[in-house]
Protein backbone atom coordinates (compact mmCIF):
# COMPACT_ATOMS: atom_id res chain seq x y z
CA UNK A 1 0.00 0.00 0.00
CA UNK A 2 2.06 2.99 1.25
CA UNK A 3 5.80 2.92 1.83
CA UNK A 4 6.55 6.53 2.72
CA UNK A 5 4.13 8.95 4.40
CA UNK A 6 4.81 12.67 4.80
CA UNK A 7 3.03 14.85 7.37
CA UNK A 8 3.51 18.62 7.23
CA UNK A 9 3.60 19.94 10.80
CA UNK A 10 2.80 23.44 11.99
CA UNK A 11 4.39 23.68 15.42
CA UNK A 12 2.17 26.67 16.25
CA UNK A 13 -1.07 24.78 15.48
CA UNK A 14 -0.72 21.31 16.92
CA UNK A 15 -4.53 21.05 17.24
CA UNK A 16 -4.67 20.98 13.42
CA UNK A 17 -1.68 18.66 13.14
CA UNK A 18 -2.79 16.07 15.70
CA UNK A 19 -5.73 14.56 13.75
CA UNK A 20 -3.58 14.28 10.61
CA UNK A 21 -0.73 12.78 12.59
CA UNK A 22 -3.09 10.26 14.19
CA UNK A 23 -4.33 9.15 10.74
CA UNK A 24 -0.77 8.89 9.46
CA UNK A 25 0.26 6.83 12.49
CA UNK A 26 -2.67 4.46 11.90
CA UNK A 27 -1.56 4.02 8.28
CA UNK A 28 2.05 3.46 9.37
CA UNK A 29 0.82 0.77 11.76
CA UNK A 30 -1.17 -0.98 9.02
CA UNK A 31 1.38 -0.72 6.22
CA UNK A 32 4.78 -0.54 7.91
CA UNK A 33 5.50 2.67 5.99
CA UNK A 34 8.16 5.13 7.06
CA UNK A 35 6.92 8.42 8.51
CA UNK A 36 8.40 11.79 7.60
CA UNK A 37 7.53 15.01 9.39
CA UNK A 38 8.35 18.42 7.95
CA UNK A 39 8.00 21.87 9.47
CA UNK A 40 8.44 24.88 7.22
CA UNK A 41 9.82 28.10 8.66
CA UNK A 42 8.85 31.37 7.03
CA UNK A 43 11.48 33.55 5.45
CA UNK A 44 12.00 36.76 7.37
CA UNK A 45 11.60 39.90 5.25
CA UNK A 46 14.90 41.60 4.49
CA UNK A 47 13.62 44.84 6.02
CA UNK A 48 13.65 43.19 9.47
CA UNK A 49 17.14 41.71 9.22
CA UNK A 50 18.88 44.78 10.63
CA UNK A 51 16.82 44.43 13.84
CA UNK A 52 17.80 40.86 14.69
CA UNK A 53 21.14 39.53 15.91
CA UNK A 54 23.35 37.64 13.43
CA UNK A 55 22.63 34.38 15.26
CA UNK A 56 18.84 34.77 14.93
CA UNK A 57 18.40 32.44 11.97
CA UNK A 58 20.46 29.63 13.51
CA UNK A 59 18.70 30.03 16.87
CA UNK A 60 15.30 29.80 15.18
CA UNK A 61 16.37 26.71 13.24
CA UNK A 62 17.68 25.03 16.40
CA UNK A 63 14.50 25.88 18.34
CA UNK A 64 12.25 24.48 15.60
CA UNK A 65 14.33 21.31 15.35
CA UNK A 66 14.14 20.88 19.13
CA UNK A 67 10.34 21.26 19.15
CA UNK A 68 9.91 18.91 16.21
CA UNK A 69 12.13 16.29 17.86
CA UNK A 70 10.10 16.62 21.07
CA UNK A 71 6.98 15.87 19.03
CA UNK A 72 8.66 12.85 17.42
CA UNK A 73 9.62 11.54 20.87
CA UNK A 74 5.91 11.35 21.80
CA UNK A 75 4.95 9.22 18.80
CA UNK A 76 4.17 5.53 19.31
CA UNK A 77 6.37 4.37 16.44
CA UNK A 78 9.90 3.01 16.16
CA UNK A 79 12.32 5.94 16.04
CA UNK A 80 14.20 4.50 13.07
CA UNK A 81 10.97 4.65 11.01
CA UNK A 82 10.61 8.42 11.55
CA UNK A 83 12.46 11.39 10.11
CA UNK A 84 11.89 15.02 11.03
CA UNK A 85 13.10 17.97 9.00
CA UNK A 86 12.84 21.74 9.30
CA UNK A 87 12.88 23.60 5.98
CA UNK A 88 12.60 27.28 5.19
CA UNK A 89 10.50 28.87 2.44
CA UNK A 90 6.90 28.81 1.28
CA UNK A 91 4.92 26.02 2.91
CA UNK A 92 3.53 24.30 -0.14
CA UNK A 93 6.78 24.51 -2.16
CA UNK A 94 8.82 23.05 0.69
CA UNK A 95 6.26 20.34 1.49
CA UNK A 96 6.21 19.27 -2.17
CA UNK A 97 10.02 19.31 -2.28
CA UNK A 98 10.17 17.19 0.87
CA UNK A 99 7.65 14.74 -0.64
CA UNK A 100 9.96 14.31 -3.62
CA UNK A 101 13.09 14.06 -1.44
CA UNK A 102 11.56 11.33 0.76
CA UNK A 103 9.88 9.55 -2.18
CA UNK A 104 6.60 9.86 -0.31
CA UNK A 105 3.62 8.10 -1.84
CA UNK A 106 1.16 9.80 0.54
CA UNK A 107 0.98 13.24 2.13
CA UNK A 108 -1.34 13.50 5.13
CA UNK A 109 -2.15 17.14 5.76
CA UNK A 110 -4.28 18.71 8.46
CA UNK A 111 -6.67 21.47 7.52
CA UNK A 112 -9.01 23.92 9.20
CA UNK A 113 -12.67 23.89 8.34
CA UNK A 114 -13.19 26.13 5.31
CA UNK A 115 -13.79 29.78 6.12
CA UNK A 116 -14.29 32.84 3.99
CA UNK A 117 -10.56 33.67 4.21
CA UNK A 118 -9.60 30.33 2.68
CA UNK A 119 -12.08 30.77 -0.16
CA UNK A 120 -10.66 34.19 -0.96
CA UNK A 121 -6.96 33.58 -0.33
CA UNK A 122 -6.59 29.85 -0.87
CA UNK A 123 -4.75 27.59 1.53
CA UNK A 124 -1.56 25.60 1.73
CA UNK A 125 -3.54 22.35 1.92
CA UNK A 126 -5.41 23.17 -1.30
CA UNK A 127 -2.19 23.99 -3.13
CA UNK A 128 -0.55 20.80 -1.88
CA UNK A 129 -3.53 18.77 -3.11
CA UNK A 130 -3.41 20.40 -6.55
CA UNK A 131 0.33 20.02 -7.11
CA UNK A 132 1.43 16.97 -5.11
CA UNK A 133 3.40 14.26 -6.90
CA UNK A 134 1.50 11.62 -4.91
CA UNK A 135 -1.81 10.96 -3.16
CA UNK A 136 -2.93 13.43 -0.49
CA UNK A 137 -5.21 12.77 2.46
CA UNK A 138 -6.70 15.95 3.94
CA UNK A 139 -7.77 15.52 7.55
CA UNK A 140 -10.09 18.15 8.97
CA UNK A 141 -9.91 19.27 12.57
CA UNK A 142 -12.88 18.00 14.56
CA UNK A 143 -15.71 20.47 14.89
CA UNK A 144 -15.62 22.25 18.21
CA UNK A 145 -18.91 22.16 20.10
Can you put this structure into words, describing what you see?
By secondary structure, the chain is α/β, with parallel strands linked by helices. It has a single domain, classed as HUPs (Rossmann fold). Helix content is 42%, strand content 22%. It has 5 helices and 5 strands, in the order βαβαβαβααβ. A 5-stranded parallel β-sheet has the order 3-2-1-4-5, sandwiched between helices. The N and C termini lie far apart (35 Å).
Can you give me a brief rundown of this structure?
This protein is of the alpha/beta class and 145 residues long. It has helices at residues 14-31, 56-73, 91-101, 116-121, 124-131, and strands at 4-8, 34-41, 82-88, 106-111, 135-140.
Topology:
Elements (H helix, E strand, L loop, with lengths): L3 E5 L5 H18 L2 E8 L14 H18 L8 E7 L2 H11 L4 E6 L4 H6 L2 H8 L3 E6 L5
Parallel strand pairs: 1-2, 1-4, 2-3, 4-5
- How would a crystallographer describe the biggest sheet? 5 strands, parallel
Return Rg in Å. 16 Å
What spatial order of strands do you see in the largest sheet?
A: 3-2-1-4-5
> Would you tell me the structural class of the helices and strands?
alpha/beta
**Shape summary:** globular
Which whole number gives the mean pLDDT? 89
Our measurement of the CA-to-CA distance between the termini, rounded to an integer number of angstroms, reads: 35 Å
CATH 4th-level superfamily: HUPs
Summed up, the helix count is 5
Could you say what the CATH topology is called?
A: Rossmann fold
Spans where pLDDT lies below 50 across 5 or more residues: 116-121
Beta strand count: 5
Kindly estimate the percentage of residues that lie in beta strands according to DSSP.
15-25%
Count of folded domains: 1
> Which percent bin holds the helix content?
40-55%
Q: Write down the secondary-structure element order.
A: EHEHEHEHHE
CATH architecture: 3-Layer(aba) Sandwich
**CATH class wording:** Alpha Beta
Amino acid sequence: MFKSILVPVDLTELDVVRPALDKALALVGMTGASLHLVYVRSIMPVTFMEYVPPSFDMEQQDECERKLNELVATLPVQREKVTARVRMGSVYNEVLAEAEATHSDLIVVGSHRPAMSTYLLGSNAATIVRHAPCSVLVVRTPELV
